[in-house]
Amino acid sequence: MQGAPDQGDPTEPEMNKNSEPEQEAEQSQEEEKAKEEEQKKEDTKKETGRGIPIYHRVTSLSGKFAGFLLKLFGSTSCSFSNSFSSKYRVDPDSLPGLNYQLAFTELDFGEVLSSSQGNIFTISSNNRFDILKSLSSAINTKYTYKKSENSGNKSKEVQLKFPSVSLSYSGLDAVIPGEITNRTNLTTGFSRTVTNKGNSFWTTPENVSTNYQMAPLLSISTTLFKKFDTSISCNLSNSYSENRAVSLTKNKKHQFTLTGGLQYSFRAPKGLKILFFKRLRLRNELTTNLNITYNISQKQIKSKDEPWGEETNSSTLKIEPRFTYEFSRDIDGGFNARYEVENDKKKNQKRTTTQISLWVKFKF
């Protein structure tokens, strides 16, 4: 008689079930430790730069430096031009070779009457950036190099405009209470231009000039009470030049200009009923402009062994009102006036000009 089969130890499956969660917990802990070690290695590489190829680091730094230069200098443009022209005399019904016409070779027959050749190289940069929300600035630079030769007469000119800086402020409306001003903008600028030139391909220039401009020294444009477009601008210029060609001659020039403008437009279209006719539509648009300009110009000259002397000293005041009235689409009219006073203090002369004009334009 056979016995029943052995069923095994009933406690063994329970022990296996208990050991599986423990193994999974151990594996998860090991995986977390491995991930932490890998993260530490990556952090160490980022901090020390180890593990990154040297050419990758050089490329990254070069790109950042190039981006900084582009942001600093803004947009930059370069241009070069070469021009050649000539006058010649050849036999009738004949032309010189194509190589001569393209300025590759000399004229092989006939006679050259005159020729000229010039080279111009220009490089300029423009950069505009915001300093504050309502304050912006612009920096410009320009360099020009010219060489020319006309029938053996040579000349050379080098000009540099640097610095050229301007500031613009548009936050004045928030300071002035009420609605007195609208779209107000304040602007100021400064530029320095140095020009060297002479009648040969010089090493030391014969003529040297330096020009300082505050253009504008101060300019304001706004709309008063949402109706009157107003602008006021003040410009200042000082220049110094020196001619070393024959005798040492120096010139100084000072110029001051103040301009103001006011514009107002009014429109009230309506109709006009004429007996036995249909109603005539009128535009009734009136535009007024008032421009005022005041200018002071002074120039002094000094020879080699002489003191500074006054060459010009004058002032000009000009007032120009204009009125334009549009009756309809086909009829316009206007009134222009000009009052100008010129005062030459050196010659002790004064001249006054008054001009008035009326006009009507019919469109057919």
What is the compact description of this entry?
This protein is of the alpha+beta class. Helix content is 17%, strand content 58%.
Please explain how this structure is put together.
- This protein has three helices and 14 strands.
- It has a twelve-stranded antiparallel β-sheet, covered by helices on one side. A two-stranded antiparallel ribbon has the order 9-10.
- Strand 3 (about 135-150) and strand 4 form a beta hairpin.
- The protein has a domain at about 115-360: TonB-dependent receptor, beta-barrel domain (Maltoporin, Chain A), CATH 2.40.170.20.
- With about 375 residues, the chain is α+β, with helices and mostly antiparallel strands.
- Mean pLDDT is about 85; it is low at about 1-15 and about 45-50.
Largest sheet: 12 strands, antiparallel
Order of helices and strands: HHEHEEEEEEEEEEEEE
How many strands?
14
What name goes with the CATH superfamily of the domain at 116-362? TonB-dependent receptor, beta-barrel domain
Task: Specify the overall morphology.
Answer: extended
Low-pLDDT runs:
1-17, 47-51
Strand order of the largest sheet: 1-2-3-4-5-6-7-8-11-12-13-14
Q: What's the CATH topology name of the domain at 116-362? A: Maltoporin, Chain A
Query: Total number of helical segments?
Result: 3
Radius of gyration of CA atoms, rounded to a whole number:
40 Å
Percent helix:
10-25%
